[in-house]
Design brief:
The protein has one helix and nine strands; from the N terminus they run E-E-E-E-E-E-E-E-E-H. It is mainly beta. The strands form two sheets. Strands 1-2-9-4-7 form a five-stranded antiparallel β-sheet, with no helix packed on it. Strands 3-8-5-6 form a four-stranded antiparallel β-sheet, with no helix packed on it.
């Protein structure tokens, strides 16, 4: 990773599945231009899964970095820091799925209420 960091926004990312009534699940597609780096971040209660469909990224998860090429999947557990940058020669296409699970007791309660 280098010391340059850019937030990918605007027409570089598109939301593909966000339920406004249920914030537990989010999905988006990111188009990462050559050399652009996503700054280090983490999500305390959210698992994030990255599916690289096209391109090559340098990916850092929990302090360990590696290069991945499409097709690849990277899973980041809740609370673990991660970052990535496009290390290839063309724009990378990255699908991102974030899932914040409900506590078990809430899921059981919802199932019981729904069945009643």
């Amino acid at each position: 990773m280098n010391n340059r960091a850019f937030i990918i926004a605007g027409d570089q990312a598109a939301v593909i599945a966000n339920d406004i009534d249920d914030a537990r699940y989010r999905a988006a597609v990111h188009y990462v231009p050559v050399g652009v780096q996503m700054p280090v971040r983490s999500h305390g209660d959210t698992e994030t899964v990255f599916m690289l469909e096209d391109g090559m990224l340098e990916f850092m998860v929990g302090g360990a970095a590696t290069h991945i090429a499409a097709p690849s999947i990277v899973r980041v557990p809740p609370g673990v820091p991660y970052a990535y940058r496009n290390a290839g020669d063309h724009t990378a296409r990255l699908l991102v799925r974030a899932n914040r699970p409900e506590p078990t007791y809430k899921m059981i309660r919802a199932c019981v209420e729904h069945a009643a």
